[in-house]
Design a protein that fits this description.
This protein is of the alpha/beta class. It has helices at 6-19, 59-71, 92-97, and strands spanning 2-4, 25-31, 36-44, 75-83, 104-109, 116-122, 127-130, 132-134. An eight-stranded mixed beta sheet has the order 7-6-5-4-2-3-1-8. GO terms for molecular function: metalloexopeptidase activity; zinc ion binding.
C-alpha cells in the first residue's frame, strides 16, 4: 500500500496539468515502512527526446535529488510521471525503462474527465499494482 496526503495528490495532479502536453516527472520521498508513505515530491526536468510520450530524468539530477532526500532524513520511495493522454497504467515503454526494483512508480493520468493517480511496484520483471490510500 502507498499512502499519500491530499497535498501530495494535489501537487502531482497540478504539475501534470501544467506540464501538458509533455510528461512531467520526479522523485517521491517519505518512509519505506509498511505502509509506504509519500511525504514530499521532487520535480525533475524531463530530458526525453519525445517528452510528449516518454520521460527521462538526467542521471546527475536524479542523484542530486536522491542525496537531498537522504540529507533530509527521508527515504526515496519511488518515482512519478504523468500520462497526459493515458493510459491509466504503466506503458510498455515504462516497463522497458524501469530499473528500481521494489520502488513505487506513480502515474498521473489525465486521460479522462478526472485525473487518475495510480501506483505500481517494479519487481525487476513486471509492474505489480499497489493500493493508493489518500489521507
Amino acid at each position: 500500500m502507498l499512502v499519500l496526503s491530499r497535498e501530495v495528490y494535489d501537487t502531482l495532479v497540478s504539475r501534470a496539468r501544467r506540464g501538458r502536453p509533455a510528461e512531467i516527472c520526479g522523485l517521491l520521498a517519505g518512509a519505506r515502512d509498511s505502509p509506504t508513505r509519500i511525504e514530499d515530491t521532487f520535480q525533475a526536468e524531463n530530458v526525453a527526446e519525445t517528452p510528449e510520450t516518454n520521460y527521462e530524468i538526467h542521471p546527475e539530477e536524479q542523484l542530486a535529488i536522491m542525496e537531498e532526500i537522504e540529507d533530509r532524513g527521508q527515504d526515496v520511495v519511488g518515482f512519478y510521471h504523468s500520462h497526459p493522454a493515458g493510459p491509466d497504467r504503466p506503458s510498455e515503454t515504462d516497463a522497458a525503462d524501469a530499473t528500481w526494483d521494489g520502488y513505487s512508480y506513480v502515474i498521473v493520468s489525465l486521460n479522462g474527465a478526472y485525473p487518475f493517480v495510480g501506483s505500481w511496484r517494479w519487481t525487476g520483471e513486471a509492474f505489480e499494482p499497489e493500493t493508493v490510500h489518500l489521507e
